[in-house]
Structure formats: structure tokens, C-alpha cells
Amino acid sequence: MIFSILIYGSAHNSQSVHSAYRFTDSVLRSGHQIHRVFFYGESVHAASILSAPPRDELNIHQLWKDLAETHQLDIVVCIAAALKRGVMNEAEARRHEKASFNTQAPFELSGLGQLSEAAIISDRLVTFGA
Amino acid sequence: MSQKNILLILSHAPYGDAYAKEALDIALTAAAFGLPVSLLLTQDAPYLLLKSQQPQQIQQKNFANICSALPMYDIENIYIEARAAQTKRITLDQLVVPATFVNQADIALMIRDHDVVLRF
After folding, report:
1. Which of A3, A62, B18, B36 is the most buried (most CB within 10 A)?
2. pTM of this prediction?
3. What residue ranges define each of the domains in chain A, with the CATH number in brackets?
């Protein structure tokens, strides 16, 4: 079965992003496919490479990065939600004349059309809200 | 590509947080992709459709403008949880777009009949 994942809970103030990670990992372990993971709303902070939690706590950014690289996942961050929260890659930082950037591959910035496309392609779109 | 329909269930009031805005952005994009979109407004979300909202006083964009444009995006299936409307004394003539009141049983059928259900 083909799954896509929509996450919009807070990256650091809710269980949402971690639950989505555990679910995605289980889907892959069970032999199903992940078409796309879409980060929306407050969850976009999970894409920040500058996140530096205490060593004895989960690093939610690193977990997603490792999972995405292991399985070649398409992990998309809503560009509008990200830019207004100060999450941007090198190209967007240059375009908006910002001094630095804080996200990079495997996280991709793209539009909500990627969510609609995922809803069309996938057998199941599973949401992890607030 | 097979045609899939989307039901967005909104429950938050328009201006206290970003949920309503983010849900409507999904609705408009999905409609632009040609997906049939239904909106169900529950709890505090029916306030989104009021003609009389005045968010300029708190420097916010008016949801009435976005919502009145929904039919232009072919989003005409707009439903309001009747119980929510009753407790808030909201009537259809106060709204910027035509909408339909639905009860709990109708909502159960709507969730069953849609391929994708998103809650905001």
C-alpha cells in the first residue's frame, strides 16, 4: 500500500512529529511504500539543521534526516509555512536576502500542490496534527 | 489519475491561531488541482463565514473575503455543524456564502463518503 504523511503539529511542543516518524518507520518496516512526507504548520521547525536539543533528548531533525536518507524518502516542507517561520534553504535565503540558511537536503521546500498530488497518488494520507 | 474528494473539517475560530488559514490554503490548492473539496465547519469554525467580522481592528486579513471567494474556486459544498451554529446563534443569512446545516449523523456519512479527511 502507498502511504503519504501530513504533519502539522508543533515540532518541539507536541508528540506529533515523533509519532509521525515512528509511524513512517513502521510503514516501511511492514513493506509498504511512502510516497511523500509533507511538513506543514508548526512542524516545519523539524527541518531546521540548527536544532540542538540536549544530548539525552531526541533529536527529531536528525531522526527524520536519517530515515529519509536511508529510504530515499521525498520529504517536503511547505515553503510558505517555512519561510514565514524563518526556515529556509540556501536558495531561498539568497532570494530573500537573508544572512544565513537553516535547512537543506533531504528536506525540500515546495508548495501545497505537493500535498494535493500526494493525496491523489496515495492509498492513504495519514495526518499527524497538533 | 483517479478522482478523489477531500473533506476538510475545521474546528478553530478564525483569528486566535493559524489553523483556519492553513486549512483554507489546503482547500484552495486542492480545488486548483481539480479535486472536489467539501468544507465542514464545527465548534468555533462557523465564525469564519460571518459577514460582520472586523479583523482590521487587530491588523488581520478578513476571512470573509477569502470565504466569499470559495465558490469561484468551485468550493460550494460548505457545511456547518448545526449544533455549533445554534449555540453561537449563527444563522445562514449572516454568512458570506451559502452553507448547509448538518447534524452528527450527516457528519458521520460525510466522513465515510470522502476519500481524504483532514482535520484542522
Report:
1. A3
2. 0.95
3. 2-128 (3.40.1260.10)
